[in-house]
């Protein structure tokens, strides 16, 4: 785009979360990034004397940028999901080289197993499992996996219970009330499936009942002057809220979609086409 005016386009950048896409003179995508504030983030690349934090790779990329475009999202979480999808689709050269090209965690429910588990996963693959994510906060994901296991007494071991005779001695997690011990045959497959379905509803966002209960516990600890336990309960609620932020970009149904969007005013019209695979 020979007529691309950087100063003019930079001034138009909105103070919204979103994804920005850097192109070279042949319209090839050099880099895809996300931003909490597109106006501030994108302008940093072209600021004189910025130095790009001493990175020669970033400086080289900026020298190749012929134009950029951006997509506004409703939240940072939506920007994250869109960024992941665009990187997977286009495999930009400089996303491979730069350190901020990383995977984001998922919560995985292994629904294909006889006695499913709730685990931390680095990737989403096409298997018989149910995935939730991606998420931005790894520690919050870890806390939520642990909490889900405790709340619904989901096993944390990786034993293949499809082949087990289910007559093993239950482990410590059963003794402390954090597992229903399917390995020892102490819970039926139907009862365990009911626990998993409750866990899935919780991970799907129906967690108000849980957070209300935690709030009551936190207040009770505070009134009893058990401030350490109150702080732990507060941190647990914060982790749940962080990992359960709503987003609309990614769907867990796995269905393919073609989406066409149109925006226009008196003088201009823009059409965008998205392919979800």
Describe this structure in words.
This protein is α+β, with helices and mostly antiparallel strands and 277 residues long. The chain is 40% helix and 17% strand. The two termini are 29 Å apart. The mean pLDDT is 83.
In brief, what are we looking at here?
Helices cover 40% and strands 17% of the residues. The protein has 277 residues and is an alpha+beta fold.
Question: What are the salient characteristics of this protein?
Answer:
alpha+beta, 3-stranded antiparallel sheet, 40% helix, 17% strand
Low-pLDDT segments, ≥5 res: none
Gross morphology is elongated
The rounded distance between the terminal residues' Cα atoms is 29 Å
Number of separate helices: 10
Blueprint of the fold:
Elements: H1 6-12, E1 18-23, E2 29-35, H2 38-45, H3 56-64, E3 67-72, H4 76-90, H5 93-97, E4 106-109, E5 118-121, E6 130-132, H6 138-152, H7 172-175, H8 189-203, H9 208-223, H10 227-243, E7 257-264, E8 269-276
Antiparallel strand pairs: 1-2, 1-3, 4-5, 4-6, 7-8
